[in-house]
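[09:14] KT: can someone run the structure on this one? pasting the chain below
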Amino acid sequence: MAAGFLDKERIIAGPGFNRWLVPPAALAIHLCIGMAYGFSVFWLPLSKALGIKEAIKCGPEIGFFQELFVTTCDWKIATLGWMYTMFFVLLGSSAALWGGWLERVGPRKAGVVSAVCWCGGMVISALGVHLHQFWLMILGSGVIGGIGLGLGYISPVSTLIKWFPDRRGMATGMAIMGFGGGALIGSPLAAQLMKSFATPTDVGVVSTFIVMAAGYFVFMMAGALGYRVPPTGWKPAGWTPPAAQVNNAMITQRHVHVKKVWGIPQFWLVWMVLCMNVSAGIGVIGMASPMLQEVFGGKLIGVAQKFGELDKPQLAAIAAVAAGFTALLSLFNIGGRFFWASLSDKLGRKLTYIVFFVLGGLMYASVPGSAGVGSIVLFVGAFCVILSMYGGGFATVPAYLADLFGTQMVGAIHGRLLTAWATAGILGPVVVNYMREYQLGLGIPREQVYNQTMYILVGMLVIGLICNLMVRPLADKWFMTDAELAEEKRLAHERASAAEVGSGSGGGGTTSPVMVAVAWAGVGIPLAWGVYKTLVNVAKFFS
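[09:31] RB: done, structure tokens below
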């Protein structure tokens, strides 16, 4: 019975179903798994999980592998940071491995598995904190949670693109905006919960993990059960698919099988496009706060002193300003996902990425100059634009793939493309962090150590631009024949209408506007709260 309830046939929408119920379902899942971006809120409390007020430091004989099992000293923040790497490596690899399975079983079953993995991983992590066994945290949130991340991230892509063939970019932009917004809700929520649960003998992380896992499970299950897929051949009333003309030659009406994409040059070109865009952006996200502090030092609080000349109270004051800067960047990251992806419906995906690389390159190249003249406004403005395009790159690429490879298996193809994200998650931070250390080792002043890095990032964007310009429509040989497409639809359990599988749970009849409003309020209110909490931090920067 349970298996039948989760089957793809059971979620084919009936006549009169309102497609605007699907984006809130996707957002419900993405807002939860997006907490992966905000997990660093746990690092400082966990680094004092045993010592409570002061960390009990491990001796020099305790290396990383010993830290996985040690129970007598606290974990280093650098060790905890590996969780962040695990998240995005597992996200990319799991999306690549199980993307094809997702296309065949449908978004409901994938969403349920995602909820079980992500929330179950947090519970296992809570046990790891309780027993002070870091390997359990790696297994729980890192591996199992990472699998949930990958499946949850790609679960709505194919479905949304099929529901919104007229607004592909906007549809995927809405969902992927939720992934960026997850930390806006999760980080302040986790901070408040840890404060409530903390005692003289407990930092409150265990209880926080369990409460958040329970809350996330409810939201994610609601999202998974809210998914519906359109009948085969469905299209919005009054919409006609674009004819194959010069101005939309990049949009195919045919379909590519996911098994073929590894051998298609255009796939690897788009892979490089995403990898370069993400590497440049993700490299500065992690260093945004120290970068602002080291470049401008006392100027952030109206003091004419460099970073190394400030005392502890002054350092604390500029750290608060930098936290506001980081919060501001997060808002542009999220807003850019919806703005640029929606704009790509008008500009086309290829031109949108040209804008990313050209404008982004100019912004990176301007940073050393704005830092040199001491212009905080130009410096911050450049990074706000950069982060908007970083988020926009994530949100636009599913529609780019649908244009090139068709919609039949776009979720699975997107899953394979996310290996570019996993690669960028290592490449970007390594370039920025190691270049900084190298420059400091040469004796270059702190306010100048990022200049060379900015030019390297410009070089990455140039590579991405060249790859994007090389993207062309696919040759006929890559597309499925009619027979192959029919077989794939059979394997994907596609039906022409909900009536073919009985009453099912597809949802026939006209959808109540009240139901649509309630669904949007369910995701909109938490997101609005997260934006409000972020704006409070942003105010520190402007004050």
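[09:33] KT: thanks! The chain has two domains: 1-53+64-230+501-511, 259-470.
[09:34] RB: yep, looked fine to me
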